[in-house]
Design brief:
Layout: H1 3-23, H2 25-36, E1 48-56, H3 63-72, E2 76-83, E3 88-94, E4 104-110, H4 117-127, H5 143-149, H6 160-169, H7 171-179, E5 185-189, H8 200-209, E6 222-223, E7 229-233, E8 238-242, E9 248-252, E10 255-261, H9 286-292, H10 298-301
Parallel strand pairs: 1-4, 5-10
Antiparallel strand pairs: 1-5, 2-3, 3-4, 6-7, 7-10, 8-9
Helix pairs in contact: 1-5, 6-7
Length: 303
Protein backbone atom coordinates (compact mmCIF):
# COMPACT_ATOMS: atom_id res chain seq x y z
CA UNK A 1 0.00 0.00 0.00
CA UNK A 2 1.52 3.31 -1.07
CA UNK A 3 1.90 6.29 1.25
CA UNK A 4 -0.49 8.21 -0.98
CA UNK A 5 -3.24 5.60 -0.57
CA UNK A 6 -2.63 5.46 3.19
CA UNK A 7 -3.15 9.23 3.31
CA UNK A 8 -6.30 9.02 1.19
CA UNK A 9 -7.74 6.20 3.29
CA UNK A 10 -6.93 8.14 6.45
CA UNK A 11 -8.92 11.09 5.09
CA UNK A 12 -11.89 8.85 4.31
CA UNK A 13 -11.86 7.11 7.69
CA UNK A 14 -11.49 10.35 9.64
CA UNK A 15 -14.33 11.89 7.66
CA UNK A 16 -16.56 8.93 8.42
CA UNK A 17 -15.72 9.02 12.12
CA UNK A 18 -16.15 12.79 12.40
CA UNK A 19 -19.66 12.81 10.98
CA UNK A 20 -20.63 9.60 12.74
CA UNK A 21 -19.51 11.01 16.10
CA UNK A 22 -21.58 14.14 15.49
CA UNK A 23 -24.69 12.02 14.92
CA UNK A 24 -24.18 9.52 17.76
CA UNK A 25 -23.90 11.20 21.18
CA UNK A 26 -23.02 7.87 22.83
CA UNK A 27 -19.61 8.00 21.11
CA UNK A 28 -18.48 11.06 23.08
CA UNK A 29 -20.29 9.88 26.19
CA UNK A 30 -18.41 6.56 26.20
CA UNK A 31 -15.04 8.07 25.29
CA UNK A 32 -15.36 10.77 27.96
CA UNK A 33 -16.23 8.13 30.56
CA UNK A 34 -13.20 6.10 29.49
CA UNK A 35 -10.96 9.15 29.89
CA UNK A 36 -12.49 10.09 33.25
CA UNK A 37 -11.87 6.58 34.62
CA UNK A 38 -8.29 6.54 33.32
CA UNK A 39 -8.86 3.76 30.81
CA UNK A 40 -7.42 5.95 28.05
CA UNK A 41 -5.89 9.42 27.88
CA UNK A 42 -7.43 10.29 24.53
CA UNK A 43 -9.65 8.78 21.83
CA UNK A 44 -6.54 8.17 19.71
CA UNK A 45 -5.65 5.24 21.97
CA UNK A 46 -8.77 3.30 20.94
CA UNK A 47 -8.26 0.63 18.30
CA UNK A 48 -11.22 0.51 15.91
CA UNK A 49 -11.90 -3.20 15.38
CA UNK A 50 -14.23 -2.63 12.44
CA UNK A 51 -16.73 -0.30 10.86
CA UNK A 52 -19.93 -1.35 9.11
CA UNK A 53 -22.08 -0.17 6.23
CA UNK A 54 -25.59 -1.15 5.17
CA UNK A 55 -26.67 -1.15 1.53
CA UNK A 56 -29.57 -1.96 -0.78
CA UNK A 57 -29.09 -4.98 -3.03
CA UNK A 58 -30.32 -3.33 -6.22
CA UNK A 59 -28.76 -2.59 -9.59
CA UNK A 60 -25.84 -0.09 -9.48
CA UNK A 61 -25.71 -0.19 -5.67
CA UNK A 62 -25.19 -2.75 -2.93
CA UNK A 63 -22.02 -4.59 -1.99
CA UNK A 64 -20.73 -4.81 -5.57
CA UNK A 65 -20.65 -1.02 -5.77
CA UNK A 66 -19.53 0.05 -2.29
CA UNK A 67 -16.76 -2.53 -1.99
CA UNK A 68 -14.92 -0.95 -4.94
CA UNK A 69 -13.88 1.91 -2.65
CA UNK A 70 -12.15 -0.26 -0.09
CA UNK A 71 -10.74 -2.77 -2.58
CA UNK A 72 -9.04 0.22 -4.24
CA UNK A 73 -7.32 0.99 -0.93
CA UNK A 74 -5.96 -2.54 -0.68
CA UNK A 75 -8.61 -4.19 1.45
CA UNK A 76 -9.12 -7.92 0.75
CA UNK A 77 -12.57 -9.48 0.45
CA UNK A 78 -13.01 -12.35 2.88
CA UNK A 79 -15.85 -14.54 4.16
CA UNK A 80 -19.47 -14.31 2.98
CA UNK A 81 -22.39 -14.34 5.45
CA UNK A 82 -26.06 -15.13 5.00
CA UNK A 83 -28.81 -13.87 7.29
CA UNK A 84 -31.81 -15.79 5.98
CA UNK A 85 -34.49 -14.40 8.28
CA UNK A 86 -33.42 -10.79 7.75
CA UNK A 87 -32.87 -11.38 4.01
CA UNK A 88 -29.33 -10.03 4.17
CA UNK A 89 -25.99 -10.94 2.63
CA UNK A 90 -22.63 -9.64 3.84
CA UNK A 91 -18.86 -9.82 3.46
CA UNK A 92 -16.00 -8.59 5.57
CA UNK A 93 -12.82 -7.01 4.24
CA UNK A 94 -9.38 -7.31 5.79
CA UNK A 95 -7.20 -4.17 5.91
CA UNK A 96 -4.14 -4.01 3.64
CA UNK A 97 -1.67 -3.87 6.51
CA UNK A 98 -1.94 -4.86 10.17
CA UNK A 99 0.79 -2.45 11.24
CA UNK A 100 -1.53 0.55 10.80
CA UNK A 101 -4.24 -0.96 13.03
CA UNK A 102 -6.76 -0.09 10.34
CA UNK A 103 -10.35 -1.18 10.94
CA UNK A 104 -11.83 -4.20 9.26
CA UNK A 105 -14.80 -3.37 7.02
CA UNK A 106 -18.16 -5.15 7.20
CA UNK A 107 -20.62 -4.51 4.37
CA UNK A 108 -24.13 -5.95 4.24
CA UNK A 109 -26.92 -5.64 1.69
CA UNK A 110 -30.64 -6.27 1.69
CA UNK A 111 -31.79 -8.92 -0.78
CA UNK A 112 -34.57 -6.71 -2.15
CA UNK A 113 -36.10 -9.35 -4.48
CA UNK A 114 -37.02 -11.42 -1.41
CA UNK A 115 -39.28 -8.67 -0.01
CA UNK A 116 -42.97 -8.25 -0.79
CA UNK A 117 -43.93 -6.66 -4.10
CA UNK A 118 -45.05 -3.53 -2.27
CA UNK A 119 -41.74 -3.13 -0.41
CA UNK A 120 -39.79 -3.75 -3.61
CA UNK A 121 -41.84 -1.11 -5.40
CA UNK A 122 -41.21 1.46 -2.65
CA UNK A 123 -37.47 0.82 -2.69
CA UNK A 124 -37.19 0.96 -6.48
CA UNK A 125 -39.19 4.20 -6.60
CA UNK A 126 -36.19 5.76 -4.88
CA UNK A 127 -33.16 3.75 -5.94
CA UNK A 128 -34.06 3.57 -9.65
CA UNK A 129 -32.91 7.20 -9.98
CA UNK A 130 -29.38 5.76 -9.70
CA UNK A 131 -28.90 4.76 -13.35
CA UNK A 132 -25.20 3.87 -13.20
CA UNK A 133 -22.79 2.76 -10.50
CA UNK A 134 -21.89 6.05 -8.75
CA UNK A 135 -18.52 4.70 -7.56
CA UNK A 136 -17.39 4.30 -11.18
CA UNK A 137 -17.41 8.08 -11.65
CA UNK A 138 -15.72 8.78 -8.31
CA UNK A 139 -12.02 9.68 -8.05
CA UNK A 140 -10.99 7.14 -5.43
CA UNK A 141 -7.64 8.87 -4.99
CA UNK A 142 -9.42 11.98 -3.73
CA UNK A 143 -10.14 11.32 -0.07
CA UNK A 144 -12.32 14.40 0.38
CA UNK A 145 -14.46 13.41 -2.63
CA UNK A 146 -14.95 9.88 -1.27
CA UNK A 147 -15.82 11.26 2.16
CA UNK A 148 -18.41 13.57 0.61
CA UNK A 149 -19.83 10.72 -1.50
CA UNK A 150 -20.36 8.52 1.56
CA UNK A 151 -22.45 11.26 3.16
CA UNK A 152 -24.48 12.46 0.19
CA UNK A 153 -27.97 11.55 -0.96
CA UNK A 154 -27.96 8.94 -3.70
CA UNK A 155 -31.76 9.00 -3.95
CA UNK A 156 -34.52 11.36 -2.78
CA UNK A 157 -35.45 11.69 0.89
CA UNK A 158 -38.33 9.24 1.43
CA UNK A 159 -41.89 10.07 2.34
CA UNK A 160 -42.82 9.19 5.90
CA UNK A 161 -45.53 6.78 4.71
CA UNK A 162 -42.96 4.89 2.62
CA UNK A 163 -40.51 4.74 5.51
CA UNK A 164 -43.19 3.36 7.82
CA UNK A 165 -44.33 0.80 5.25
CA UNK A 166 -40.77 -0.50 4.97
CA UNK A 167 -40.34 -0.41 8.73
CA UNK A 168 -43.28 -2.79 9.15
CA UNK A 169 -41.62 -5.38 6.91
CA UNK A 170 -37.84 -4.83 7.11
CA UNK A 171 -36.36 -2.52 9.70
CA UNK A 172 -33.06 -2.80 7.85
CA UNK A 173 -34.74 -1.50 4.66
CA UNK A 174 -36.24 1.44 6.53
CA UNK A 175 -32.86 2.30 8.07
CA UNK A 176 -31.08 2.31 4.71
CA UNK A 177 -33.78 4.18 2.76
CA UNK A 178 -33.28 7.16 5.09
CA UNK A 179 -29.69 6.86 6.39
CA UNK A 180 -28.05 5.59 3.17
CA UNK A 181 -24.28 5.04 3.59
CA UNK A 182 -23.93 6.79 6.95
CA UNK A 183 -21.57 4.77 9.10
CA UNK A 184 -23.71 2.19 10.90
CA UNK A 185 -21.23 1.68 13.75
CA UNK A 186 -17.62 1.66 14.82
CA UNK A 187 -16.20 -0.89 17.23
CA UNK A 188 -13.96 -0.51 20.25
CA UNK A 189 -11.36 -3.30 20.54
CA UNK A 190 -11.88 -4.13 24.20
CA UNK A 191 -8.97 -6.61 24.42
CA UNK A 192 -6.46 -3.81 23.83
CA UNK A 193 -7.61 -1.73 26.79
CA UNK A 194 -5.86 -1.66 30.16
CA UNK A 195 -6.32 -4.55 32.63
CA UNK A 196 -9.59 -4.30 34.50
CA UNK A 197 -11.41 -3.23 31.34
CA UNK A 198 -9.93 -5.52 28.69
CA UNK A 199 -12.58 -8.24 28.67
CA UNK A 200 -16.08 -7.84 27.31
CA UNK A 201 -17.68 -8.66 30.67
CA UNK A 202 -15.65 -6.04 32.51
CA UNK A 203 -16.21 -3.42 29.84
CA UNK A 204 -19.95 -4.10 29.76
CA UNK A 205 -20.02 -3.62 33.55
CA UNK A 206 -18.23 -0.28 33.04
CA UNK A 207 -20.80 0.78 30.41
CA UNK A 208 -23.73 -0.21 32.59
CA UNK A 209 -22.26 1.73 35.49
CA UNK A 210 -22.41 4.78 33.30
CA UNK A 211 -25.99 4.15 32.24
CA UNK A 212 -25.22 3.16 28.64
CA UNK A 213 -28.19 1.32 27.12
CA UNK A 214 -27.11 -1.99 25.56
CA UNK A 215 -28.63 -4.30 22.95
CA UNK A 216 -30.08 -7.31 24.76
CA UNK A 217 -31.05 -9.37 21.67
CA UNK A 218 -29.53 -12.81 22.19
CA UNK A 219 -28.09 -11.62 25.50
CA UNK A 220 -26.00 -8.55 26.27
CA UNK A 221 -22.80 -10.39 25.24
CA UNK A 222 -22.89 -12.32 21.98
CA UNK A 223 -20.38 -15.20 21.89
CA UNK A 224 -19.22 -17.14 18.82
CA UNK A 225 -19.49 -20.96 19.02
CA UNK A 226 -15.69 -21.25 19.31
CA UNK A 227 -15.68 -18.72 22.14
CA UNK A 228 -13.10 -16.62 20.34
CA UNK A 229 -15.21 -13.59 19.44
CA UNK A 230 -17.31 -11.79 22.04
CA UNK A 231 -19.37 -8.75 21.11
CA UNK A 232 -21.79 -6.26 22.60
CA UNK A 233 -23.33 -3.02 21.39
CA UNK A 234 -25.33 -0.01 22.43
CA UNK A 235 -28.78 0.47 20.99
CA UNK A 236 -29.13 3.09 18.29
CA UNK A 237 -30.03 6.53 19.49
CA UNK A 238 -33.20 8.06 18.15
CA UNK A 239 -32.88 11.11 15.97
CA UNK A 240 -35.55 13.41 14.60
CA UNK A 241 -35.75 12.95 10.84
CA UNK A 242 -37.48 15.21 8.36
CA UNK A 243 -39.18 13.43 5.49
CA UNK A 244 -40.00 14.53 1.97
CA UNK A 245 -43.52 15.56 2.87
CA UNK A 246 -42.22 17.86 5.62
CA UNK A 247 -43.31 15.56 8.42
CA UNK A 248 -40.90 14.81 11.24
CA UNK A 249 -40.52 11.46 12.92
CA UNK A 250 -38.01 9.91 15.33
CA UNK A 251 -35.97 7.16 13.71
CA UNK A 252 -33.07 4.93 14.73
CA UNK A 253 -29.64 6.31 13.93
CA UNK A 254 -26.29 4.55 14.48
CA UNK A 255 -24.71 2.85 17.47
CA UNK A 256 -21.41 1.75 19.05
CA UNK A 257 -20.09 -1.81 19.18
CA UNK A 258 -17.51 -3.49 21.41
CA UNK A 259 -15.47 -6.58 20.53
CA UNK A 260 -13.10 -8.89 22.36
CA UNK A 261 -11.00 -11.20 20.19
CA UNK A 262 -9.43 -14.01 22.15
CA UNK A 263 -5.85 -15.14 21.63
CA UNK A 264 -5.76 -18.24 19.44
CA UNK A 265 -4.91 -21.51 21.28
CA UNK A 266 -1.60 -21.94 19.46
CA UNK A 267 -0.41 -18.59 20.83
CA UNK A 268 -1.70 -19.00 24.38
CA UNK A 269 1.82 -19.07 25.85
CA UNK A 270 2.94 -15.81 24.24
CA UNK A 271 3.74 -12.96 26.66
CA UNK A 272 1.01 -10.32 26.64
CA UNK A 273 3.35 -7.65 25.28
CA UNK A 274 4.06 -9.77 22.19
CA UNK A 275 0.45 -10.40 21.21
CA UNK A 276 -0.79 -8.57 18.12
CA UNK A 277 -3.71 -8.91 15.71
CA UNK A 278 -2.27 -11.96 13.97
CA UNK A 279 -2.41 -13.88 17.24
CA UNK A 280 -6.12 -13.30 17.84
CA UNK A 281 -9.35 -14.75 16.49
CA UNK A 282 -10.08 -13.18 13.11
CA UNK A 283 -13.21 -12.65 11.04
CA UNK A 284 -16.81 -12.44 12.19
CA UNK A 285 -19.61 -14.72 13.32
CA UNK A 286 -23.04 -14.80 11.65
CA UNK A 287 -24.86 -15.64 14.88
CA UNK A 288 -23.34 -12.65 16.68
CA UNK A 289 -23.87 -10.26 13.77
CA UNK A 290 -27.49 -11.33 13.36
CA UNK A 291 -28.28 -10.00 16.83
CA UNK A 292 -26.00 -6.94 16.52
CA UNK A 293 -28.10 -5.87 13.49
CA UNK A 294 -31.01 -5.48 15.91
CA UNK A 295 -29.29 -2.55 17.63
CA UNK A 296 -31.37 -0.33 15.32
CA UNK A 297 -34.62 -2.30 15.66
CA UNK A 298 -37.68 -0.89 17.41
CA UNK A 299 -37.76 -3.65 20.04
CA UNK A 300 -34.29 -2.63 21.21
CA UNK A 301 -34.42 1.16 20.94
CA UNK A 302 -37.74 1.22 22.84
CA UNK A 303 -36.76 -1.22 25.60
Amino acid sequence: MTKQLITVLDTVLKGLMRRYSERVPDVHRIINAMINEGIIKSADEIENDHIAFRTMGVRNLGIASLEKIFLHYGYEKRDPYNFAEKKLSAYWYAPPTIEQNLPRIFVSELRVPELSKNAQSIIHNYTDVVTSDPVDSLDLNDGAAVDQFLHQSLWPVPKLADYQALLSESEYAAWVIYNRYYLNHFTISVHNLKPGFNTIDKFVAFLQRHGIKLNSAGGIVKVSPDGGLLQASTVAQMTEAEFADGEKFSIAGSYVEFAERQVLPQFADLPADQISRVHRREGFEAGNADKIFESTFVAQVNQ
